[in-house]
Structure formats: structure tokens, C-alpha cells
Amino acid sequence: MQSFDVVIAGGGMVGLALACGLTGSGLRVAVIEHQPSVQNFDPQSEPELRVSAINAASEKLLTHLGVWSRIKSMRASPYTEMEVWDNHSFGRIHFSAQQASSTHLGHIVENRVIRDALWQRVLECDDVQIISPAAIEKIHWGENEAFITLSDEQVLTARLVIGADGAQSWLRTHADIPLTFWDYEHTALVATIRTEQPHGGVARQAFHGDGILAFLPLSDPHLCSIVWSIPAPLAEQRKISDVTQFERELSVAFDMRLGLCQLTSSRFTVPLVGRYARNFAAQRLALLGDAAHTIHPLAGQGVNLGFMDVAELIGELKRLHREGKDIGQYLYLRRYERRRKHSAALMLAGMQGFRQLFDGNNPAKKLLRDLGLLLADNLPGVKPQLLNHAMGLSDMPEWLQQLSIIEERE
Ligand SMILES: Cc1cc2nc3c(=O)[nH]c(=O)nc-3n(C[C@H](O)[C@H](O)[C@H](O)COP(=O)(O)OP(=O)(O)OC[C@H]3O[C@@H](n4cnc5c(N)ncnc54)[C@H](O)[C@@H]3O)c2cc1C
């Protein structure tokens, strides 16, 4: 039987980031992951289909964890502008890095690149052990520790178990934590597209009645990753439709902004569901990332929210450990829970409001959203606040905010 202070279920982007953040804290950490990272990144390879828009707050955390330069050396594409518009009216809003007094607004990074960089970093940490491929088979919640049985019958003990095992979290289910969820009545169709005109480092999003279409700029100036959120039957139809017809429909839905679009990858679909766990912590358990919440990808904030859960929990666990407290006591985990539930609830409510406002072509709604976009684009003081939110600067825990000098551990 091996004993750990913290056992993290799930070595995705969020679970690995927490493991990296706890190294050197004096806590012994294990990560249990189904799917080992392959670690054979080829810079000439086609971009992976799953990408994330990484905001400034997450960049700061990843820099502190010593992985940002590794991520950039693999492949990351900065974007300096964001443009959002409504195809059927005059509503439009534009943001630039200059307005944020920054060199960029964020980066588009393949999920695999982030995960590989974090995995490599964890392998360098003596106090973190990755157990993979492995999954939790059983868990027993004892008075002073949790007893975890893995699929190969290995038994581990932990003072605190972390559920970073994604949207379908095994741990959340086995801890009987209720989940509020709602169907966004959208399925995301994801693909890589070559555009006739260069993207110019601009992240673009079009609202078009029955859907939302995002073009995220990749390192190649003519390649974009698209997330097309549309009703499920339409998404399933477009996933298998004739390529020429797909490209034509896509170019039109995108208002021909970058000329003709050419599909360069396979197409895959993901049903979009909002989820919000009733508790983000319990006795000897904390949930974070998609295990605690999932949101509509329209603002590209899902994993950014997860990374701020990580930042908050790093701060809390280090403090509790320094003060000699039992890190698994729900009493002590409640502060983490309260803060992160608040941030996730705000984000979920914001996404829901946006989603409803931009759904359909009801004339009153159309007028409201046109006016909203127009005012947001022009009223003094509004844009900096929106930018602050988009860059995650208002959602960082204090310790991360106070890191004024961006430091790399490497
Ligand atoms: C179409 C789309 C576009 C998106 N775009 C963005 C974006 O631009 N920006 C953004 O911030 N977010 C975006 N998101 C959200 C983002 O992808 C997720 O928030 C993020 O992947 C969640 O990371 P995670 O580590 O919490 O979970 P996951 O990535 O799901 O990782 C969970 C890990 O746990 C492992 N696991 C699961 N069960 C077990 C088990 N029982 N035992 C062991 N291991 C287990 C899995 O193998 C996996 O590695 C998008 C989401 C979608 C669907």
C-alpha cells in the first residue's frame, strides 16, 4: 500500500497543472490517468483538432509552473485581436491587444501540447508520481484518509483525493455529489480549415441565427481551428456532408470574411452541456476543472476556469500544509469551494445569457443584441472591463495576481 497526501484522479490539463503546482510544497502527490501521454510531438505535424484559447491569467499560471516556454517551443499561436459580429445585422464588437496595453490577448494552443508539456514537467518532479495507465476501481472514505483501489488491485491511501477526471467524473458520481446540468441544444462541430486570406492573428466569432461560428487562428497564417455550435441534427448532418457543400456553407456562415474555406481535417462533434456540481468539495475530496463545471465554448473559457481552480487550490493547500492543518478536512476546503463556485456560477450565468440573447432572429432580441454590441463597443469604460474578464485578470487568486515578475522555474 502506498501512501500519499494528495491523489489526483485525471491527468488531463487541469489535473497535471495541479500536480506541477504542488511540487516542492512538502506534499506527496500521485496522478492516476487512463491514457498516458505519448510525448512524440512533431512540429511539422497537422494541428490536433482540440485546441483552447488560453487567456493571460492561465498563461501566467503556466509560466509559474515552468511549462509556458515549453508550450511555446512546441506550438502556440498568439492572437492580437478579437472580433465578434452578428451576420444578420449591424451588431459588432472589436478588441485589440493595444486596448489592453498588451502584446497579445491570448494564445490558441492544441490541448495535446499543453498536456504533453505538463506531463514532461511532472516527470521531472521527485515528489509527484504518475500512475498510468490506471483507473480507480473503488474508493473507501475513512476517518483520516481515503483508501483507493486501482484497476490492477494496487491500493493507495490519500489525505485528499482530487477529482480532475473530466466532465463524466467517476469521483463526482461515486461521492454522490449532485449535478445541475442543462442541454445547450447545441453540438459543437470541430475541424481545421485553410482560408483563402490570412487570419492575421485575429480570433473571430460570428453569430448567425441558428448557430455560433468561431475561427481560431493557428500558427500557419492560413489555418484556423473552427468551433461551429449548431443544433445537433444540423451538426451531425454537416459532419458527414459532402466536403464541397460543407465548405460552401461554412464560407457563407462566416460571411466570406477570409474568402473561401477549405477543410483540411476530419470533422468531429461534441454535444454541449452545461454542468455545475452542487459541491466542489467534501470531506477528503475536491473537484476541479470539467469535473466541477462545463460551459458553452462560445467564450473559450472552460479550461481557463479550470486553471484558476488549480491556482486557487494550490494556494489553499500550500497554506493549510504550512499551518499544519489536515488538508482533507471539508471545513478547510470550504474556502476553495466558495470562491470557485462563485466564479463558475458567474461564468455559467454569463454564457447562458449570451447563448439566449444570440439565439434565433426574434426582432426584439435582435435589436437588443445589436444595441448591446454597439454600446459595448463604444461606451467608455465598458471595453476594458470586458477585456479584463476575457483575459481572466479579474478571476486570479491573490497569490497569482501578486506575481508581478513573470518567472519561469526552468
Ligand atoms: C468544442 C470545445 C471547445 C473548447 N474550447 C475551449 C477554449 O477555447 N478555451 C478554453 O478555456 N476551454 C475550451 N474548452 C473547454 C476545455 O476543453 C475543457 O474545459 C478542458 O479540456 C477540461 O480539462 P480537464 O483536465 O478538466 O478535463 P479533461 O480534459 O476531460 O481531462 C480529464 C482526464 O481524466 C482522465 N480520466 C477520466 N476518468 C478517469 C478515471 N476514472 N481514472 C483515471 N483517469 C481518468 C481522462 O483520460 C483525461 O485525461 C472547449 C471545449 C469544447 C468541447
Question: Overview of this structure, please?
Answer:
This is FAD-dependent 2-octaprenylphenol hydroxylase. Keywords: Oxidoreductase. Its EC number is 1.14.13.240. It comes from Moellerella wisconsensis. There is one protein chain. With 410 residues, the protein is an alpha+beta fold. The protein has helices at residues 13-22, 56-64, 68-74, 111-123, 170-174, 232-240, 243-253, 302-322, 330-357, 363-378, 382-390, 398-401; strands at 2-9, 29-32, 51-54, 76-79, 81-86, 92-96, 106-110, 128-131, 136-141, 146-150, 155-163, 179-195, 202-207, 212-217, 223-230, 261-263, 268-277, 281-282, 285-287, 293-294. Strands 5, 6, 12, 13, 14, 15, 16, 17 and 20 form a nine-stranded mixed sheet that branches. Strands 1, 2, 8, 9, 10, 11, 18 and 19 form an eight-stranded mixed sheet that branches. Strands 3-7-4 form a three-stranded antiparallel sheet. A hairpin with a 4-residue loop joins strand 10 and strand 11 (155-163). Helix 1 runs parallel beside helix 8 (302-322) and helix 3 crosses helix 4 (111-123). The longest helix has 28 residues, at 330-357. The mean pLDDT is 93. The structure holds flavin-adenine dinucleotide (FAD).
